[in-house]
Design a protein that fits this description.
Length: 159
């Protein structure tokens, strides 16, 4: 389906099956002539108005589904950020305790086998915290843009 309009009356839309072609423009001209004969055309057309003066109406490239996908992705990014934030907060205190205990390895004081075992187990917590913290920082950067997408989507059309 191809649609045409007139420069003089952009509110008039003439729809013709098929693609833009000389034949389609002729059919649109026939519709235009019928409107003129019926007196429903709001403007006067000059003598010599031709099918080439019809303006093809192109569909806008705004895909509502793409906008919805963007919003869905933004919400997922923010949800991921929330999960990572909780994970970092939950393991921060324990990781900082273990980090303090690491200093004992660099001192000249004696360390028991039990302390070393606790440290080794704590390294897993420290590693998990550090990895989660890095993922959180990266997610936070990405989530800034997601927040802007949501702010734009939530804006009132009156603003």
């Amino acid at each position: 389906m191809v649609q045409y309009t007139l420069a003089q009356s952009p509110e008039i839309i003439l729809s013709v099956p098929g693609k833009d072609s000389a034949k389609a423009r002729d059919k649109a001209m026939d519709q235009l002539m019928e409107m003129m004969d019926a007196g429903t055309l709001p403007t006067e057309l000059e003598e010599g108005f031709s099918p080439q003066q019809l303006i093809e109406v192109k569909e806008s490239n705004i895909d509502p589904a793409a906008g919805e996908d963007t919003i869905t992705q933004a919400v997922q990014l923010l949800s991921n950020l929330a999960t990572l934030k909780l994970k970092v907060q939950e393991s921060r205190a324990e990781a900082l305790e273990i980090r303090k205990a690491v200093d004992v390895l660099f001192s000249d004081s004696l360390v028991s086998e039990e302390e070393i075992s606790r440290l080794k187990e704590g390294f897993k917590v420290l590693k998990n915290f550090a990895q989660a913290n890095i993922r959180y920082q990266e997610a936070r950067t990405k989530a800034e843009q997601a927040r802007q997408v949501l702010d734009q989507a939530l804006k009132s059309p009156d603003n």
